[in-house]
Amino acid sequence: MLERWSGIWYNGRESGHGKRSAPPARETASLTPEKPAGPGQRTEKGADGMERYRVLLVDDEEEIRAGISRKIDWDSLGFTLAGEADNGEEALELAELVRPDVVLTDIKMPFMDGLELCRRLKRVLPAAKTVVFSGFDDFEYARQAVGMGVSEYIMKPINAQEMSGVLLRLKDQLDQQQAERRDMESLRRRYEESLPVLRELFYTRLLDGQVRAEQIGDRAARYEIQMPEGPWTVALFDVDSLEEAEQRDELLLLSVQGFLTKYASLDCVVRTVLYNDSVALLAQTDQTYTLLEELERLRALALNYLGLELTVGVGLSCATLGELRQSTEGARSALDYRVLMGGGRVLYIGDIEPGTSAELSLDEDDQRELANAVKLGTAEQVEELVCSLIERLRKHRMDLAQCSLFLLELTTALIRLARAGDVELEAVFGPGFTGVMPISQFRSLDELEHWCVDRCLNLRELLGRQRSDSAWRTVERAKHYIGQHYADSELSVESVCTHLHLSPAYFSTLFKREEGMSFIAYVTNVRMERAAQLLLESDDKTYLIAEKTGYTDPNYFSYVFKRRFGISPSKYRAGGER
Fold first, then answer.
1. Structural element, H or E, at residue 222
2. Residue 78 pLDDT more than 80?
3. End-to-end CA separation in angstroms for the chain
């Protein structure tokens, strides 16, 4: 069954120029067909079940379209005629629906010529192949076509054999592109084979603090690793009883890693990894002394089973995976105490340096995570992060001076965010804020935590409101500009963006989100409403009204007007819509 969209036939034949009629109401659902895959992703199938490349045919002469459609054996060449259009404007709309792999277009057409069509298609369908044909042996046309990356330039009259040869050449190019895409499958298999190495590298970078906190979850999922959030503790195993050269033997370290993987008996998630000249054990637990007992058991078992004397350094528990580097540094520092306390034992940094703190201030990772949460996170994520930072104060029993420094750094981070977002500081911190909050104003850490959470949530809301207001103001400025320049036939997204100093891609997304329609649709509505007003309130000829509303071609103006209102401009003026 043939279907039609805005007067354009697709997967079939059109009825002929000037013979379109609106579809009946019961066919409305067919006006928005499901969008097919992009160019190069063949979705049409021939009688043999094999997939075919999609072709869009564009020519204002119905006889030529019918001749090409009838004389070309599309199926045997590996193609299917996915749609036809009689001008460039219609072709551009249809191309967004059928996503053709090949576009065959005449150069001389009304409303939009073939070269302009090719230029615009290059932006929306850069992978599509374009073939232009013309009745004029004009070098300038050919030069422009080559400059636009057109694949073939054919002179009319079009010979079926020549067209078939062109299609076969294009099919070879498309097949080669398909083969290159299939090579991606080979790369994917190689990637899977490399997963063990990539996982080891991920663990090492995680222990070194080289993975940003917001990336950890995605990286772990990519490498098919389960690394749940929560408290983690790092332990480093060093071999003491062998010579230096033997101790660094990777096979020996692998045997220690295998031993730990097999015999570790902890009621939590455990990961083991080769780390520098040690074996690291990562345990998802904050039950430090239960962990220390198990590590002592493993150390004694390794001496009996492997004949190896191990020294184990254990860092402080950290609240999140993003802080794992701090626990690693604590474990490494604990191993350094082997010189004073002797090897062959489990050394816990919390026992050796009871006043130590894995992190007493907000480092760059903390500040980046806080900024991301306040600017982009949910209220729950903000509260969870701030509470984890305050928990650091509780866990390490920081004194008053250290707590004051911590509060100063957190407040400074929020001040930077507020100023960057053009938010008044008093709106965040309250009236009379001087830039400093004395720690003595808080009676407990709970009260401090509540204040910090409130300030962060307040700033989050203000920044969100500021972004929304800024977007609304930008779109209002654009609408005002359109209202002043709709009569300019050169009005475009680019000209508006030049006025607003924005990128076209960002502006287009912003405008559609705020207005619920595209920029082109909005401009067309403005022009059509103004045209309707002029038809009813003035005696201007139709061609003058077209010029006053930004249309250089009166015929195309009439075409757009009829598509908008269902009747021609003359009938509208005669009283069709009064």
1. helix 213-222
2. yes
3. 38
* Alpha carbons 291 and 312: distance in angstroms, whole number: 12
Q: Which of 31, 9, 10, 29 is nearest to 19 (CA)?
A: 9
Place of tokens 């005629």: 81
Q: Would strands 129-134 and 310-314 be described as parallel, antiparallel, or unpaired? A: unpaired
Is-contact 335 347, C-beta < 8 A?
yes
| Two structure tokens written together for 267 | 């009621």
CA–CA dist 451, 439 (Å, integer):
11
* Whole-angstrom distance, CA of residue 86 vs CA of residue 184: 38
Rg (CA), the chain: 35
For residue 168, the model assigns a pLDDT of: 94
Q: Cβ distance 278 to 258 under 8 Å?
A: no
Could you give phi then psi for residue 237, rounded to 5 degrees? -105, 120
CA–CA distances in Å: residue 567 to residues 85, 88, 544, 573: 22, 22, 19, 10
Which of these, 545, 547, 552, lies nearest to 572 by C-alpha position? 545
- Give which of 462, 502, 464, 461 is closest to 481, Cα–Cα: 502
Distances (CA, A) of 312 to 15, 256, 396: 83, 12, 22
Confidence of residue 223 (pLDDT cuts 50, 70, 90): confident
- Strand pairing report for 102-106 and 233-239: unpaired
Higher pLDDT, 390 or 544: 544
What are the two backbone dihedrals, phi and then psi, of residue 82, each rounded to the nearest 5 degrees? Answer: -85, -20
The pLDDT value given to residue 505: 82
Structure tokens at 353: 């340096």
Specify the pTM: 0.36
Distance CA 393, CA 399 (A): 9
Residues of the chain with pLDDT > 90, as a percent, come to 24
Neighbours of 95 (CB within 10 A): 23
- pLDDT the model gives residue 428: 84
Enter the DSSP assignment of 576. I
Q: How many residues does the chain have?
A: 578
* 137 Cβ contact partners less than 8 Å away, ≥ 6 residues apart: 155
DSSP 137-166: --HHHHHHHHHTT-SEEEESSPPHHHHHHH
What's the pLDDT tens digit per position in 108-137?
A: 888 888 888 988 888 888 889 999 888 766
Higher-pLDDT residue of 338 and 31 is 338
Cβ atoms of 200 and 206 within 8 Å: the answer is no
Beta pairing class for 233-239 and 278-283: antiparallel
The Cα–Cα gap between 8 and 111 comes to: 15
Question: For residue 9, what pLDDT is reported?
Answer: 41
